Amino acid sequence: MSILSILMKSDKDEPSSALRSDCSLCVPEKEVVIWRGAFWRLIDAGDTSIPGYLRLIVNRHITELSWLAKPEREQLFSLLQVIDESMRQELKPTKINIASLGNQVPHMHWHIIPRWHDDPYFPQSLWSTAQRDTVSPEQDARHQAAQRLFAKLPKLCAKAVY
Ligand SMILES: [Zn+2]
User: Fold this and answer.
1) N or C, which end of the chain has less CB nearby within 10 Å?
2) Distance between Cα 161 and ligand 1 center (Å)
3) Domains in the chain, please, with CATH?
4) What is the pLDDT of residues 93-130, one digit of tens each?
5) 130-162, pLDDT tens digit by residue?
6) Phi, psi dihedral angles at 131 (to 5 degrees)
7) Alpha carbon of 26 to ligand 1 centroid (Å)
């Protein structure tokens, strides 16, 4: 079953809590989980060109914001806020991009992306054509700051949902 057919099917079905063995986000092959809660999990997006890039993924099959249950919606905003704050403190980015697309998988997820004026795509989105191929002289320091951020986030996320 293709990802598209899973997505199309989930549009017609009620949102589901059941894990599906044919879904890449129910049964991820490689995922570096930073924190996992009852409704959401936070993973390292693993993009080496953008240190600290995170994804916040809803655990059940649900694709639209208005379909979230109230506790899921409340936790989402609390989590985005605490992630944004701690990302700003540790990474000191030029800007933080927060985006939800979800056209290819049946789990709503949020990209939380620290952006720097000298990152490969700035000021365009990460999904655009690269603007430059130089590596910032700050890149190593940003990777180290990202590791500090990842170490702090489990405690901060757990606190944010209580
Ligand atoms: Zn799934």
Assistant:
1) C
2) 22
3) 3-160 (3.30.428.10)
4) 999 999 999 999 999 999 999 999 999 999 999 999 99
5) 999 989 999 999 999 999 999 999 999 999 998
6) -90, -20
7) 4
Cα of 35 vs centre of ligand 1, distance in Å, is 18
CA distances to 14, 61, 63 from 9, rounded to whole Å, are 10, 11, 11
Q: 13: CA distance to ligand 1 center in Å?
A: 13
pTM above threshold 0.70: yes
Please name the residues in contact with 120: beta carbons below 8 A apart, sequence gap of 6 or more: 49, 50, 130, 131, 132, 133
* Ligand 1 centroid distance, CA of 24 (Å): 6
Handedness of CA 54, 57, 63, 68 (dihedral sign): negative
Cis-peptide into 28, omega within 30 deg: no
